[in-house]
UniProtKB/TrEMBL annotation:
Enzyme class: transferase
Chain ranges of the Glycosyltransferase 2-like domain: 7-129
Classification via InterPro entries: Glyco_trans_2-like, Glycosyltr_2/OpgH_subfam, Nucleotide-diphossugar_trans
One Gene Ontology cellular component: plasma membrane
Keywords: Glycosyltransferase, Membrane, Transferase, Transmembrane, Transmembrane helix
Location(s) in or outside the cell: Membrane
Protein name as annotated: Cellulose synthase catalytic subunit
Naturally occurring in which organism (per UniProt): Klebsiella pneumoniae
Length: 159
């Protein structure tokens, strides 16, 4: 088992930009209490709505709304949450909460809640530093995550 001080997490269809660590790691040196730096997800292909409506790159997509408004607002109120990919997490706080929460399919949100409950803070680096396929034969083999997140977010046990 690796013992490094930091863990970088990417979905299987995501890759970091060349400058990912340069853009994110300095914040951990500046803010010693920082537990996680989340970066926006960027997809290189259209999501089902963009493809079916013929709107890919013609109108802002869901990620632009989420990372540009919702998550940015969360960050302002010290309520940023882990989105499961494109992030760096400090191992110490992650170990304190027992690692990534695996009891639900919304392990990212559940992990965020565990960190926030302990007063450990997370931040958003508002520039995309990783991207993913988001479509194609590889992705069709797997069930889309958004319906799971919408349905199973309620499965996160209350305090």
């Amino acid at each position: 088992m690796p013992k490094g001080e930091f863990v970088s997490i990417f979905d299987c269809d995501h890759v970091p930009t060349r400058s990912f660590l340069q853009m994110t790691m300095g914040w951990f040196l500046k803010e010693k209490e920082l537990a996680m730096m989340q970066t926006p997800h960027h997809f290189f292909s259209p999501d089902p709505f963009e493809r079916n409506l013929g709107r890919f790159r013609k109108t802002p997509n869901e990620g632009t709304l989420f990372y540009g408004l919702v998550q940015d607002g969360n960050d302002m109120w010290d309520a940023t949450f882990f989105c499961g990919s494109c992030a760096v997490i400090r191992r110490g706080p992650l170990d304190e909460i027992g690692g990534i929460a695996v009891e639900t399919v919304t392990e990212d949100a559940h992990t965020s809640l565990r960190l926030h409950r302990r007063g450990i803070y997370l931040r958003l680096y508002a520039y995309s530093a990783g991207g993913g396929a988001g479509d194609g034969e590889f992705i069709r083999a797997y069930r889309p995550a958004h319906p799971l997140g919408a349905r199973d977010g309620a499965d996160i046990p209350p305090r």
